[in-house]
Amino acid sequence: MSAPSQNLTPADAAQAARLTEQMLYEVKRVVVGQDRFLERVMVALLAQGHLLVEGAPGLAKTLTVKTLAQVVQGQFKRIQFTPDLVPADLIGTRIYNQKTGEFGTVLGPVFANLLLADEINRAPAKVQSALLEAMQERQVTIAGESHRLPSPYVVMATQNPIETEGTYPLPEAQVDRFMFKVLVDYPSEEEEFVIAQRVTGAVSGEAPAQPAAVADSAQLVRLQAWCRAVYVDPVLVQYAVRLVAATREPKRAGLPELERLLSFGASPRATLSLVEGARALALLRGRNYALPEDFGDLAADVLRHRLVLSYEALSEGLDSDALIGQIMSRVPLPAKVVAHDKAA
């Protein structure tokens, strides 16, 4: 791969798309289905964002991240969050060495390229804050000494929607630090049949396929730099601003009926996440410019966890996705942008 330039050429975008396609191909040799989820994981990886994933147990969330780490030759670590976890279990601590008579630093499992925080809502607020601070600052402080986290660095935190007893829900201010909230659903019957064949070897009797490494950390950092060079027309940025603003003041967007249903709207982080995510999605699709459909495809995942619904909305059985659909219908996507060719 050539060095990234300030202006991303169509050839560069095509080269990036080929590499990401190879990465997805290797992941799909192990993970069956979940195409949308895999795409969001790749978008977060390229856009240097973090994911909050909600889904029932057994839907290959851990397997997806572990397999992707093998494909990009990155370090993968998994933390099972429990109520008795303390911040030192996460970021590390200082340990006294009796032989040398000195304190040494033992780094925690947050020091990885791909980190899976399993059932993050089972840990108390102090532990959640320690992880989310590492996500935001990309460094941790142990005994007054700062330690940089490796690059690339992506956190995927999971939540179990089935069981809420004994959990500590993430505060809105902390949830806002996740770029996307992705909902993972059960596979179809056809996909589940293929899963059973692959895992049990019911037909061929062969061992499950192992993914091949097709990229390294240096190539991944280069892809992230190319992602930042994808052209986004100001019209699309203005759309992102208008869409996010409509969640705060729906009356101004022509949706006065939503005023009573929304307590708080999305923050400016949502606008930034939508623009950066659209850039990454455009690069995945082999383009050096973003299109309106890139924004439309990601809008629900960017806004879903950032809306605070009122008690009235909850009593009526509404969810964030329903309100986002109404807002998107009133704030339509702009027409296809034609100025990108000239700028790109």
From TrEMBL:
GO terms for molecular function: ATP binding; ATP hydrolysis activity. Signal peptide: none annotated. Gene3D superfamilies: Magnesium chelatase subunit I, C-Terminal domain, P-loop containing nucleotide triphosphate hydrolases. Residues 261-324 form the ChlI/MoxR AAA lid domain. InterPro entries: ATPase_AAA-3, CbbQ/NirQ/NorQ/GpvN, ChlI/MoxR_AAA_lid, P-loop_NTPase. The keyword Secreted does not apply. Residues 50-180 form the ATPase AAA-3 domain. Keywords: ATP-binding, Nucleotide-binding. Belongs to the MoxR family. PANTHER family: MAGNESIUM-CHELATASE SUBUNIT CHLD, MOXR FAMILY PROTEIN. This is ATPase.
